[in-house]
# Entry
Amino acid sequence: MSEGISAWQLVASGDATLFAIVRLSLAVSLSAVAIAVVVGLPLGAVLALTRFPGRSALIVILNGFMGLPPVVVGLAVYLLLSRSGPLGELGLLFTPAAMVVAQALLVLPIIAALTRQTIEDLWREYRDELTAMGVGPTGRVATLLWDSRFSLITALLAGFGRAAAEVGTVMIVGGNIDGFTRTMTTTIALETSKGNLPLAMGLGLVLIGLIMAINAAAWGVRLWSEQRAG
Amino acid sequence: MMRASPSDLPIVLDGASLRAGATTMLDRLSVTITPGAPTLVVGPNGSGKTSLLRLCMGLAAPSAGIVTWGGRTDSGQTRRAILFQKPVMLRRSAAANVAYGLAQAGCPRHLRTTRAEELLDRVGLLDLAARPARRLSGGEQQRVALARALARQPEILLLDEPTASLDPAATRHVEEIILMAAQSGTKVVMASHDLGQVRRLAGDVVFLVRGRLCEQTSVKDFFDRPSTQETAAFIRGDLVL
# Structure
């Protein structure tokens, strides 16, 4: 019980180290989601609208990748970025950039797969109307993405939740270096194993609070814009 | 807007069939749609009215036989517009729905707002322009879709029972808009099972029963001298199955 109280105190006191850790975690996860969105939305939309041999297999693989184990992604990125790896010369291993890349790979399948499903459902409804208006392939993708914007917010939140909560990839490719690549989740893991439970619990509360706040904000935006656009 | 391309009229269906799996929607239909007063496509539910409109629009390819537009088999859809029985409203305002149609028809960006307002005014919905289109009633959505179809300034306007879900006042309004379009040179092809509407609007009638052409004739002959038993039964108000 005393640990719970000191965890609250730590959060309330606005500790500088704690603040830096929170900031890095958010920066890494939000950047990863941004990259995954830029790649994943068009990828999902194109996959929804095109027909080619092997498409079904690709969709199954993409859906399966939503459950990709973070440690395996971390390992793969580690091998790519390690000094003897193909991208070793970039010197990115154990930097926040490496963590962003690894998390983006983790989030990309979630956003692409959920976008594919959403767009394919909407296309079924819009197909005749858009075809009759002579809308070309690029226009279709743009229209369908825009018109499913409310559903796609949920896909983004799922992606963000995945990135913010995982510990495996950032631990492996970030290295949990104090003051440089230490995030909320890696700190929680470390401090728990050291027996420093107040800090671990404090960070846990902050992490859950942040995820809740972002989801609440997204929900508010969705309600507000749905009322305006129908 | 896109008046440079050659005319899509006449639309000629020559022995055109439309099948999906074991179901035959249209069976060896030969119909010619020529310029002039509206052509009304008439028949009971499931007789193939919608399928005929889809073939005319080029949304479906015939399983057998051919369809030509002005003698061409590969006509683009720039000169045609269709109003579906259940039109799809894009998730934006009524005005934005019409502006979308204008954009697709090549209307320059700076003219779209004004033109969209003109078109909404024409269908009597100017005061609902800013409302989310999907929150409008069925009848209002139908009229937004009509404005969006008219935005293409079509040579041929295909309408699938556009007044089926409207009350008499709204029906009258929509019929006036359709007649106005027809008088300004647009060829109207319209599915209907309302015989009063056929009398009011039709120049000629295409009468379908179970996916087959029963007869194509002038509206006068359709009512005064029906040439088949099915036609006679249909205009008497008997059930034609």
User: Anything to note?
Assistant: Chain A has one domain: 16-223. The first helix of chain A runs from residue 2 to 13. Residues 1-5 of chain A have pLDDT under 50 and may be disordered.
